[in-house]
UniProtKB/TrEMBL annotation:
Electron transfer flavoprotein alpha/beta-subunit N-terminal domain mapped to chain residues: 23-211
Domain of life: Bacteria
Protein's UniProt keywords contain Transport: yes
Keyword Electron transport: yes
Organism for this UniProt entry: Sphingomonas quercus
Name of the protein this chain belongs to: Electron transfer flavoprotein subunit beta
Keywords annotated in UniProt: Electron transport, Transport
């Protein structure tokens, strides 16, 4: 079985995002970028499935600027077999991403597509579900456990009430949650090997997808600073303070 894993280049999770001076967006110049953490979990899960013998090939795909090659090389160093970069400098929205991934999947014919449940830059949590709808495939979202057996995949999902287990017939789509696994670090030999692994470059037009944004960002602003807390002597003082603030205890 072939596995397809989309990955996204985002601001590193250790970096505090800064808003541009003109309020037009988030500052990306000279900012450390890395693979979206949820996508890193998806890559790790795909590699583990291959190591167990449940899959034969892991293909990673990214949609973004030329520098997204670095993200793909990271996935190749982790253990993926080959990569595809759909190169565009546009800010591609989830629906366009889903349409491109659908076209890529139709060419690659993977038995399972594993995505991160969301990207930490926009937190949309839409691409996996949209892709499943466009392709008419079964989906298991927020996966904390994935098991492949023949032409079926069992997914343990994290839901509000606890855990839910669903059985899907492949080809299927799975989105990963944080507790699915802990991604490995790429070793130096694997980083060197990744430089020679195949990386194909395409354009959205090759798949007949228009990436023109449907949404317009009017302004971006930092959230207001949180005010310092205040200690009170006892419950009566607390109730009085709440009443003064107009809060009904």
């Amino acid at each position: 079985m072939k596995l397809l894993v989309p990955v996204k280049r985002v601001i590193d999770y250790n970096v505090k995002p800064r808003v541009k001076a003109d309020g037009s967006g988030v500052e990306l110049a000279n900012v450390k970028m890395s693979m979206n953490p949820f996508d890193e979990i998806a890559v790790e899960e795909a590699i583990r499935l291959k190591e167990k013998g449940a899959a034969t090939e892991v293909v990673v795909v990214s949609i973004g600027p030329a520098k997204a090659q670095e993200t793909l090389r990271t996935a190749l160093a982790m253990g993926a077999d080959r990569a595809i970069l759909v190169q565009t400098d546009d800010a591609v929205e989830p629906l366009a991403v889903a349409k491109i991934l659908k076209a890529v999947a139709e060419g690659e014919q993977p038995g399972l597509i594993i995505l991160g449940k969301q990207a930490i830059d926009d937190d949309s949590n839409q691409t996996g579900q949209m892709l499943a709808a466009l392709m008419g495939r079964p989906q298991g979202t927020f996966a904390s456990k994935v098991e492949l057996a023949g032409d079926a995949v069992t997914v343990t999902r994290e839901v509000d009430g606890g855990l839910e287990t669903v059985s899907l017939r492949t080809p299927a789509i799975v989105t990963t949650d944080l507790r699915l696994n802990e991604p490995r670090y790429a070793s130096l030999p694997n980083i060197m090997k990744a430089k020679s692994k195949p990386l194909a470059t395409r354009a959205p037009a090759d798949y007949g997808v228009d990436t023109t944004p449907r949404l317009q960002t009017l302004t971006v602003a930092e959230p207001p600073r949180r005010q310092a807390g205040e200690k009170v002597a006892d419950v009566d003082a607390l109730v009085a303070k709440l009443k003064a603030l107009g809060v009904t205890p």
